[in-house]
Amino acid sequence: MTTATTTAATAGQVSKSAAEIYDEFFVPSLFGPWAKPLCDAARIARDSDVLDVACGTGANTREAAGRVGSKGRIVGLDRNDGMLSVARARAPSVEWVEGRAEALPFDPQSFDCVLCQFGLMFFDDKTKALAEMARVLRPGGRIAVSVWDSAENSPGYAGMIELVETMFGRDAADALRAPFCLGDKQRFQSLLHDGGLAKATVTTTSGTARFTSIREWVRMDVRGWTLADFIDDAGFEALVTQAEKRFRRFSGKDGSIEFPAPAHIAAWTHN
Q1: Of 6, 81, 165, 179, most Cβ neighbours within 10 A?
Q2: How far is CA 216 from CA 24, 146, 257, in A?
Q3: Architecture in CATH for domain 3-269
């Protein structure tokens, strides 16, 4: 396994085809339901200017756009052109920008709100990214950031990480661990402090991961995430077989999968 591949995996970078799967399946299963509570935490007002950092395919950005209205400015920024391609197709009226969170291409005090939904975990320099969000925020503005709680508190993923490591090794498992790297609340708060958001409030909110079946859950993790770098078609089928044996406790009568997936939401006001 090359260093480049491992870095791309743990940094959450995907291809265009993976981005399309991500948008079709991951957004409704995991990310879409979190757009409303994050925008609520940001207290987005009508006609305000809003930046969504690490916007992905734009689920959170579209929620914010609905709150801003036609007179406000809504910008979605991501470093992955595959994600942005899908985002543009879904909402062509939004301003989509390719760029890095650590070097936001905007003037100081450009926005009333800055959002970051489940992106902070993947930044190369998390402290710098937070400082950049604060730099582009106007006085009185608000930053809202969400990160996943620890994998141990999301039993489906805790089990899947263990299974993937057993079958495919540590690097593959680390690609699944990466989204949970800020799950420790004390570590998250310490990072916020270091990034200049010392008085941010952090709230842990319950959530639920839902998939139509174990096969679809595995397909999303392998084809819609970066596990395709580690798992070929034969490996995929083997993983499905083992997952169907191991995770029956999360299955409903119709075969659908459901398990807790809580998150931390931080909110900070620029006084």
Answers
A1: 179
A2: 11, 25, 9
A3: 3-Layer(aba) Sandwich (3.40)
